[in-house]
Every structure is written in C-alpha cells, then in structure tokens.
Amino acid sequence: MVEIIIQYVLIALLVMGLGYLAYLLKDKDINLKDDYFGFASLILGSLSASESTPENVKIILRIISEAVQYVEINYRNSENALKEEEAIRLAKDSTSLLGFKKNIDDESLKCLIRIAAALLPATNKIIK
Q1: Whole-prediction pTM value?
Q2: Where along the chain do its domains lie?
Q3: Tens digits of per-residue pLDDT, 71-110?
Q4: Which end of the chain has the least Cβ crowding within 10 Å, N or C?
C-alpha cells in the first residue's frame, strides 16, 4: 500500500515539474523550434544580444560544416587532433569575417566541429 502511494506522489511531482519547466520556457519567451537542437544557445552564449539571431546561427553552422569537410578532404591521412586544430583555425578565420563584436570561443567551436565531423558520411569500409 505504501509503495502505491509513493508511486502516485512521484507521478504528481513529475507532472508538476514538467508543468513548471513549460512555465519557465514560456515566461522567458524561449522558442525551442528555433533553437536548432541546442546549438543556438551554445553559439549565442558568446555573442552579443544584437548578433544572436537564428540567421547568424545558420551561417555559423554552415561555415563550420564547410571547414570540417575541407579538412577531411585535404588532411585525410592526418591525425584527428591535427584535423581538429586545423578546422578550428579555419572556422575562426571564417567567422571573424562576419564582423561580430565578440568571437566564438574555442570550446564552442570544438564542440560544433566534433558534431559536424560525426555527421559526415562514412569513408571507410563497412565494419562486420
């Protein structure tokens, strides 16, 4: 009997917690649809308020994707650490041309580069 009561209390707390989360998101006017799976908050945390637009996020993600593709094509037989550093350098150079007041920090670039590299099509043989 006690176990059933505990289960109902936990379910009630879960529902209240989800309701409170929805309230907080609505209160801060956060639109999850425009957040691009959390990338916007990761990138836009280091940009100023006037630069934090979904259009800029799209541009930055495209720049990082192109940098990763370039590095993968031209540095195919190099170590991954070298590829990552080269991709960071290329992405920094390209994003600096956008004219932002603050640059995107290295950790954000490194995280986005790793995600972009993971999304590249496989170039090796199928593993059995």
Answers
A1: 0.64
A2: 1-30, 32-118
A3: 998 988 888 889 999 999 999 999 888 888 888 888 888 8
A4: C
Q: Which residues of 11-37 are buried (b: 16+ CB within 10 A; e: fewer)?
A: eeeeeeeeeeeeeeeeeeeeeeeeeee
Virtual CA dihedral for 111, 113, 118, 120, nearest 10 degrees?
160
Instruction: Please write the tens of the pLDDT for every residue from 19-60.
Output: 888 887 676 665 555 555 566 666 666 776 677 777 887 888
Q: How many CB atoms lie within 10 A of CB 92?
A: 15
